[in-house]
Structures are given as structure tokens and as C-alpha cells.
Design a protein that fits this description.
Elements: H1 3-26, H2 34-54, E1 56-57, E2 60-61, H3 65-83, H4 93-109, H5 122-156, H6 170-198, H7 208-231, H8 235-263
Antiparallel strand pairs: 1-2
């Protein structure tokens, strides 16, 4: 089947899963519904097939601005779904799936913005893979922190209805956030170290902004983890630093690609 037909079908499956998850959220179901899970599996299968067709080509790997977004959301969704056996992250799907539907459609129909990468070394594969995994996990951490902020605000104002009734206790939500941060920072560390080792000039003019901003994001996340375990930072401080680190990281990655590929039209 053509990718131009697969993409709208995949988007519809994502939106159907979102609607069903919202329905079960309104009914105060704390576990992911079987219907949502089945729709998710079909959507992820189509999403993976689309990524394979538009990113992993016979001539090389297409990691332009629009293509990388589809790959990133596939990894994010897979990380979220596979984590459901250990942590109740299903409410994050309400934000992830509509964005995934949009990412699939845009990446399929938008033009290529960068030349294909061919003959990638093992070191570069490690750098690219760890970078994508780090962005995926830290995106989940950012969404988790936003939900945590909402929960904390509602509880402080003694609002105990709505989404608060189906969320895990605040302490568990906080614990889940720091678990995601630990994993994300570890992956980001691997990405930075492998970049220093395997990229010829990581501070070249076309890379310097991305490199500096990524290091700043790493410092924010690492500082938060240190402050949590050494100084007892929690809730509001954790949310603010997580979101700040995430914004800097997204600016480093998508901001630099946006400027280079879409504005300056350089790879």
C-alpha cells in the first residue's frame, strides 16, 4: 500500500485511540483499555511502516526536519506503550497521539529538506540513536512534569474532581518523573560523548548552537537530579527545570534544523 494512503489511516487510528482514551478517562478508568491498546498497536505498526518507507531508504537515511519528527514520535510512543507494564503513563497518550497523527501526515507529504545520509559509521549510528532515544524519553518527562504541575495545582486548591481522580498519587507521579529524567540524562550523556568522539568538529559553525544548547539542557537536567537527591527539590522546582531543560533541548535540535534546512536551506 502506498505511504500516501497509509499516513491518513495511521492518523485516524491515532485519533480514534485518543478519543477512546478520553472516554475512559471521563469514566475514571485507571488502567489502559484493551480497545485503546489494540488501536495503539495498529497505529504504531502503520507508523513504523511509514517511517521505514520515508526514512530508511535504499540509498541512505533521510533525517530531514520533517522526517525526523515522524521517527521521533514513533520512538516516543513505543517508549510510552512499553512502559505501561510498569508505570501508568496511559494518560500521556492524550497529548502524544494527536501530535503523532500530525507528525505522520506532515512527514509523509512535506518535501525533503536535507540530503540522504549514507555510509554511516557505527559511532555515528550510536550518536544518532542515543540522541533520538534521549529526546523521546525527555519528551515523556516533559509531558509528565506538565501533568504533575496540573495535579499539584488542583490538589493545592482542593479540586478533587476530573483528571485528578484517575491519576496516581502525587508522590508516585513525582517518582515516575525522576525515573524518566534519569534514563533521559543517561541517554543524553551517551549522545554528547559519542558526538564529541565521532563528529569531526562538533563546534563547527553549523553545529555550535546545537552543541552549546544541548550541553545547557544537560546541565539543567543534571542539576535538577542533583538538587532532588541532595537538596530535596520537588514538585514546582522539578517541573520548572524539567520544562526549561526540555525547551532548550528542543531548541537545540529542532531550532537548529529549522534554521539550517528550511531558512538557510543547508544540510
Amino acid at each position: 500500500m502506498s505511504v500516501t494512503l497509509l499516513a491518513p489511516l495511521c492518523a485516524l487510528l491515532y485519533l480514534a485511540a485518543t478519543a477512546l482514551q478520553l472516554l475512559h478517562l471521563s469514566q475514571r478508568h485507571e488502567q489502559i483499555d484493551r480497545g485503546v491498546f489494540v488501536l495503539s498497536l495498529f497505529a504504531l505498526l502503520l507508523h513504523a511502516l511509514i517511517v521505514w518507507k520515508i526514512v530508511f531508504l535504499s540509498e541512505g537515511v533521510a533525517l530531514g526536519f520533517f522526517k525526523i519528527v515522524a521517527l521521533l514520535f514513533l520512538v516516543i510512543n513505543l517508549a510510552c506503550i512499553t512502559s505501561l507494564s510498569r508505570r501508568p503513563l496511559q494518560n500521556l497518550l492524550i497529548a502524544l497521539y494527536p501530535l503523532s497523527a500530525l507528525a505522520v501526515l506532515i512527514s509523509t507529504f512535506a518535501p525533503d529538506t536535507a540530503p540522504l545520509l549514507s555510509h554511516l559509521s557505527n559511532g555515528m549510528i550510536l550518536h544518532i540513536s542515543s540522541s533520538i532515544l534521549a529526546y523521546a524519553v525527555l519528551t515523556l518527562a516533559a509531558i509528565q512534569s506538565a501533568v504533575l504541575a496540573l495535579q499539584d495545582r488542583q490538589l493545592k486548591h482542593r479540586h478533587t474532581r476530573g483528571i485528578i481522580q484517575v491519576l496516581p498519587p502525587l508522590q508516585k507521579m513525582e517518582s515516575m518523573l525522576f525515573e524518566l529524567l534519569w534514563i533521559g540524562v543517561t541517554l543524553l550523556t551517551i549522545a554528547i560523548v559519542s558526538g564529541v568522539i565521532f563528529i569531526d568538529d562538533i563546534f563547527a559553525q553549523s553545529l555550535v548552537h546545537k552543541t552549546v544548547l544541548t550541553i545547557v539542557a544537560w546541565l539543567l537536567f543534571s542539576g535538577l537530579l542533583w538538587g532532588h537527591y541532595q537538596l530535596g527539590w520537588r514538585s514546582r522546582t522539578a517541573v520548572r527545570l524539567t520544562l526549561a531543560g526540555f525547551l532548550v533541548l528542543m531548541l537545540a535540535f529542532f531550532g537548529s534544523k529549522l534554521v539550517l534546512e528550511l531558512i538557510l536551506q543547508r544540510a
